[in-house]
Amino acid sequence: MERRRFAHVFICLVGAVLMLLLYLDPDWGSEGRDTPARQGPGPYYVAYPGNYTFIMDDTPTCKTTTPFLLLVVPVAPGGVAARDTIRRTWGSEKLVLGQRVETLFILGLPSGADAKQQQEELQQENLQHQDLIQSDFTDGYHNLTIKTMMTLEWLVAHCDKLSYIMKIDADMLLHVQNLVKLLLDPSTAKQNYMTGLVWWHSPVLRNPFNKFYMPRYVIAEPEYPPYPLGMAYVMSLDLPAKILEAAPHIKPIFIEDAYLGMCLQHRGLSPTEAPDSTMFVVDPGHPLSDCSLSRVIAATTTSISQMTGYWERSMGATC
Ligand SMILES: *[C@@H]1O[C@H](CO)[C@@H](O)[C@H](O)[C@H]1NC(C)=O
Ligand SMILES: *[C@@H]1O[C@H](CO)[C@@H](O)[C@H](O)[C@H]1NC(C)=O
């Protein structure tokens, strides 16, 4: 009995010491720093640049049309409900304050047992809507940086006449008119312009149990350069090419918005704070009032029905 208890305590103790070592030095036990395996895609980097191409992009957008503003929504291949909701709500607003606005969805390849069927369904969906852009990397949360960079590549290749692009997540409310109003404002820059909810001193997270953990050997600095939060950011059309030029010099970490901040910094650029803190809202923690809805540009939502309800109310909302 005593022996058993002793063994138990001993095992717990060894376990605790191991955890502590791992916490203090997450590289402990790995085959050393900066081995070639560390350079390639792994837990902290994605495979970019890669030899990716577009296997679906027969949209007329930027080919036969010239929008003022293009909204690009990264989505999972299986996210048809989210896409349909956007097509019914803010994605349906095509002429706003006299400006042409279009919406596209960008995705990678489906994976898993039903990948083939998912791909066939995507093709059907695109036949109907012609608003999907698909590249041939494997879709997944960890590959969001690839998705963003492929979006920029597609924009540079096809859209040399539009004025602004916004990347916005599928679970967001977007007040298109307030966004267009901001972009038309004479005080809004037409070049080197990127805005959203800007994080100015975002710490590099060193807790290995955090989803955004980043070890010191990848990023030594305690803070990321400033970047707008990935949920919704807008940029002037000159920036995609500038970011792509910087990208080969910056290791492609999997945190896509922080990565864009690093690319901007490499070009000596910095994002612009939105003129009003009511414009970009993350996790408000309470339902948005009509007054908030009349002033918002983009806000996170918790469900499709909340998003739809907000969008309907935002149309006539006043403060
Ligand atoms: C990229 O893809 C093309 C066409 O599939 C192929 O010919 C080329 O060798 C590839 N390049 C690299 C670096 O993998
Ligand atoms: C990311 O995409 C690459 C290229 O297609 C693929 O090899 C890799 O498995 C993907 N990673 C994840 C986590 O899906």
TrEMBL record:
EC number: 2.4.1.-
Pathway(s) this gene product operates in, as recorded in its UniProt entry: Protein modification; protein glycosylation
Transmembrane residue ranges: 6-24
UniProt membrane topology term: Single-pass type II membrane protein
One cellular component term from this protein's GO annotations in UniProt: Golgi membrane
Gene3D superfamilies referenced in this protein's UniProt entry, alphabetically: 3.90.550.50
Subcellular location field: Golgi apparatus membrane
GO molecular function, one term: N-acetyl-beta-D-glucosaminide beta-(1,3)-galactosyltransferase activity
GO biological process, one term: protein O-linked glycosylation
InterPro entries named among the record's database cross-references: Glyco_trans_31
Keywords: Glycoprotein, Glycosyltransferase, Golgi apparatus, Lipid metabolism, Membrane, Signal-anchor, Transferase, Transmembrane, Transmembrane helix
Pfam family, one: Galactosyl_T
Protein family membership: Belongs to the glycosyltransferase 31 family.
Protein name: Hexosyltransferase
